[in-house]
Amino acid sequence: MSAAVSTAITPSIHRQRLRRLLLSCLCLALLQPWTSALAASPAPVAAASGMVVSAHRLASEAGVEVLRRGGNAVDAAIAVAYALAVTYPAAGNLGGGGFMTVQLADGRRDFIDFREQAPQAASADMYLDASGEPLPGRSTEGWLAVAVPGTVAGLELARERFGSRPRSELLAPAIRLAREGFALDQGDVDMLATATAAFRRDPASAAIFLHDGQPWQAGERLLQSDLARTLERIASEGGAGFYHGPVAAALVAASQAGHGILAQTDLDHYQARERKPVECDYRGYHVVSAPPPSSGGTILCEMLNVLQGYPLAALGWHSAQGVHFQIEAMRHAYVDRNNFLGDPDFVANPVARLLSPEYAARVRNAIDPAHAADSHALRAGEAPHEGSNTTHFSVIDRDGNAVALTYTLNNWFGAHVTATGTGVLMNDEMDDFAVKPGAPNLYGLVQSATNAIAPGKRPLSSMTPTIVSRDGQPVLVLGTPGGSMITTSVLQVMLNVIDYGMTVQEAVDAPRFHQQWLPPTTRLEPFALSADSRRLLEAMGQQFSNGAPANHVAAILVGGPALDRPGPPGMRYFGANDPRHGTGAALGY
Ligand code: GLY
Predict the structure, then answer these.
(1) Ligand 1 proximity of 428 Cβ (cutoff 6 Å)
(2) At what angle are helices 151-162 and 73-87 packed, to 10 degrees?
(3) Quick one: three-class SS letters along 144-202?
């Protein structure tokens, strides 16, 4: 019998412990009301009429320009996404896919799924050798790793549904940045330098992302004339300019030459989809986030439902006890993520059950307040679990329409292959499938056959573009890259704002931790735990490793720099760019 089951069958002991804990927390709260955890974060960027936070300053500028001219948040998001494809090629893309969460000022909510999907020639064992073991690198490097891209279809669908400006206007900044180039700064150069060796293996990528075979230097100008031509085609023809005609032909030819399986029929049949977002409530706030084929919204809500039962604010920010509850909520949610969720066109996702209050209570019952669970003993099918390299941006306009958009090539710079003549760098999203159920992927995620490869199937994602509202009005728009760490980062920023009263910038800056069931260790950013909190947690059986890779959260808070804290007169929007990467910017007007 698993540890989870054995802890679950002694609920009365845990209820007593928890009651004692809640009582002591209440006393603590009365004696020591919680104040902000950090004193040294800069103030968030304040603006009166609109705000864009993205991973590249020039893309944020493109979005603000659209807002200034009267475009809405969806218009601005489309301009930002195309601009990032030029200025932030590590994750901004035409050759990848993603998700857009939309909340309109009139309260309507929508979700656009433009996740990549497996080509028709894909098969469950395509990355395994004769003995059934994964072939290293096959699902992450080169054309065989490429899934059918969805970004252009998704941005077009968003524009048709909610946009108010002509397509050509929204693509104009990206075309200008590609054709005229832009001066690289140190953050851009550092990002490109991470993939120098991979670019050298692909002449079409090397021709763009290396300068005469050498890494680009700060101050030099990166021109992308092939990409400018591709963007011009999209501007004049829409999706057809990418999925049909010369761009599509170049993608297919490059794939064939590179031993990939992408075919014209895959491009012909790709469709972005509107889906119903996942929604839940947390301490009086309403959360709208990503449904399958992303796991993001489901496990974010699962963790929030569980954590709602603990007095996090009274326990204090990054207290040993508060961190313990968060780690255990994460551990349980990732059991469910990795075993039960997948493309809803192919598998049944038990979202309603995972998000029911009864299920949250059962998970809490299984969490021992004093001891870490043994990840290896937590199993799908046993109670309570029956049966770097993406980018996010957040936008809000003067009317209060909000967009959270996360899209990706999967790994930084995707599969490191570019179709000659197009400037389009391609994704390696096939690695987000369970290449071999039970074997870890790029992010160490150990997943089940629910997420096995099948033709036309969309790989399970962790992307979590999220909008949080109070009384029907958005108060927090956020998301982040980070592979499997996306959802836990979104969770912690939300907790920092809602439970711990931080400003949005403090909430983004604060060090984070990450637990994903397997491996059982929790990864810590530097300074995430004091030495004595860490000792207390280790005594409870928690295990830690250092060096969680840095995510880049992009968050906007509405109404003040912190919840219920007024900002300077006239200022409505407060943007926080994550300082963990050197290229982003929060800009408003
Ligand atoms: N490629 C990372 C994700 O979708 O979660």
Answers:
(1) no
(2) 160
(3) HHCCECCHHHHHHHHHHHHCCCCHHHHHHHHHHHHHHCEECCHHHHHHHHCCHHHHHHC
For range 406-425, the mean pLDDT = 96
Look at residue 264 and tell me whether its pLDDT is greater than 50.
Answer: yes
The 3-class secondary structure across 278-314, one letter per residue, is: EEEEECCEEEEECCCCECHHHHHHHHHHHHCCCCHHH
CA atoms of 17 and 14, how far apart (whole Å): 5
Measured distance CA(415)–CA(424) in Å, rounded: 11
The three-state secondary structure class of 40 is coil
Convert the pLDDT of each residue in 195-246 to its tens digit: 999 999 999 999 999 999 999 999 999 999 999 999 999 999 999 999 999 9
Phi, psi of 492 (to 5 degrees): -70, -35
Q: How far apart (Å, rounded) are the C-alpha atoms in residues 153 and 482?
A: 24
What is the CB neighbour count within 10 angstroms for residue 6?
Answer: 12
The residue nearest atom 4 of ligand 1, judged by CA position, is 461
Distances from the Cα of 18 to the Cα of 14, 360, 366, 540, angstroms = 6, 15, 12, 15
At 80, list the tokens: 């930002």
Tell which one of 338, 390, 447 to mutate to probe ligand 1, the residue whose CB is within 8 A of the most ligand atoms: 390
Q: Verify whether ligand 1 is closer than 6 Å to residue 406 (CB atom).
A: no
Q: List Cα–Cα distances, 67 to 55, 80, 154, 158, 469, in angstroms.
A: 18, 11, 20, 16, 22
Instruction: Say yes or no: CB of residue 44 within 6 Å of ligand 1.
Output: no
Report how far residue 56's alpha carbon sits from residue 403's, in angstroms, rounded to the nearest whole number. 17
What does the alpha-carbon distance between residue 404 and residue 102 come to, in Å, rounded to a whole number?
7
Judge whether 68 and 59 are in contact, CB under 8 Å.
no
The answer to whether 235 touches 175, Cβ cutoff 8 Å, is yes
Residue 438: Cβ within 10 Å count: 11
The residue whose CA has the least distance to atom 3 of ligand 1 is 461
- The C-alpha atoms of residue 411 and residue 431 are separated, in whole angstroms, by 9
For 417-474, the three-class secondary structure string (H helix, E strand, C coil) is CEECCCCEEECCHHHHCCCCCCCECCCCCECCHHHCCCCCCCCCECCCCEEEEECCEE
Task: List residues with catalytic annotation.
Answer: 390
DSSP conformational letter for 135: P
336 three-state secondary structure: helix
Task: Please tell me the distance between residue 405's alpha carbon and the centre of ligand 1 in angstroms.
Answer: 13
Q: At what angle do helices 167-180 and 57-68 cross, to 10 degrees?
A: 150
Residue whose CA is at the smallest distance from ligand 1 atom 1: 410
pTM over 0.85: yes
Separation of 291 CA from ligand 1 center, angstroms?
13
Q: Which of 484, 483, 486, 466 is nearest to 475 (CA)?
A: 466
What letter does residue 565 receive in the DSSP assignment? B
Cα–Cα distance between 391 and 402 in angstroms, integer? 17
Q: Are 53 and 64 in contact (CB under 8 A)?
A: no
